[in-house]
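Many groups now describe folds with learned vocabularies. In that spirit, our science desk offers one protein's residues alongside their backbone shape tokens.
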Amino acid sequence: MSESSSESRDRTPVPDPDVCVVGSGVAGALAAYSLSKGGHEVVILEAGPRFDRESRRQRMEAAIRPEVGFEEVWDVGGARDRYASSGDVYYRLNRTRVKGIGGTSLHWLGMATRFHEKDFEMNSRYGLASDWPIGYDDLRPYYARAERELGVAGADDNPFGPPREQEYPMDAFPPSYSDSLFAAACEELGITMHTIPQARNSEPYDDRTQCLGFSTCIPVCPSGAKYSADIHVRKAEAEGARVVDRAPVQRLVHDDEGAHVEAAVYATPDGERHRQTADRFVLACGAVEIPRLLLLSASETYPDGLANTSGAVGRYFMDHPIVRVEGVLDEPTNQNPIGFYTSETHQFYDHEEPTPGSIKLAFENIDPVSGTTRALRGGDRDTREDMFDPLVGDKWGDEALEEMRADTPNRRVGMIANPELLPREGNAVTLDLSRTDGFGNPVPDVSWSLGSHARETMAYAREIQRDIMDELGAEITFESDFDSPRPASHKMGTTRMGTDPAESVVRPTLRTHDVRNLYVASGSVFVTGGATHPTLTIAALALKAADHVDESL
């Protein structure tokens, strides 16, 4: 289902470009486009294929089939994508990533919220974690640029949000009917709801259609109304950038002194290895693959990994544990599920005391379980998502059919919360030397555990959810497990930003402390993770990094 199935594509290096960008997700695509538009010669190296946009309808049809796994939709898995997980909570890495032109933005939900001012000042405000070396005001103009580039639909109706400088590019999506049910309950409880900014077209924008409501936003938007980074990869190519797909970088090679990177060594499907030289290198392949690449690039000068004299490469990995609740009402919600959320509240985001931490609470437009899936589960409503689903249903035949009919129309409601997770040094991406990928390299080992701050915040979020469900009159049918929460796919940390070279990997300019021509544009540079979606902040930092690279050339 990809254009890159042919082995004949030219994957030879570009002779001495200005910039080599490793990775083509949101960060890599925006950095490459910004630098190409600025007149620089840019090459992008991407580990995965260039997916044919025409295949998205086919991928959507595959995604709704119960026998197709989540990872299969974007061809994730196999020797290329082996990994390990050694933390207290098993981290299903392959469920949260895509390798290919566009990266993980090909299957993200599309929420595009800004961090709050407090997220940059956790130590000075609460004595927790560390402050960022930059503040909200430093990123404010880049947030505005990122909203224009991605195309964000929103409204200035969040009384708890950070200050803004201009309107959103598009109007917000209207609240769903189930949002109105929640709104009545929240009003009784003194909770204020507001719309969600999202990189999804509420009207035609940037030569892309408005949202057509396929409701399969995760894992694929077949219409292209939801932003994905392949858009800016194509824009970068239009400005002269060269893209080399299926070219996983194996290591970075530096000069004799270790002062600058000379080349990125990458593999190709024909078994060849190539050296891509450049004046500047930008790592934009995410908070797992960036530290892995730096660790794989260890040398006599950098025995613990390239740019790792601080020992911080791979450390302080973060992702939000999802706190979810579902229930049923005595009345129908009368909604046509659209696959994404339209309302949330940040009322519990900013706080005076250190704990509990920030919470972002979203109100779900619950998709009813499909008839096919219900039939395979023997009429069972519960979504266990395991291999035994077809075997353990409660009812079969006419009995199952009658229950399925009785469950129409949809009466389900739900909420999802992102609790604040503080960086912990032991949460890390390291190399598992006992396992190798298809190229013979040690695989990444993701260690993810929850501390007391996260657990206290999760418990607080659950109390709020239960209060709302009780006021709504809903019978709770499911609550997520605190001991084994699902990560939100918000990978952050591992090459943190700072002014002290002994404790951080990159400077406020996103250039590494140790290597003068190596920059990092990724969620990996986050110092703390807040409680909201990181993508818009990643985009803003990528634009900032591109400006600093441009200034250095």
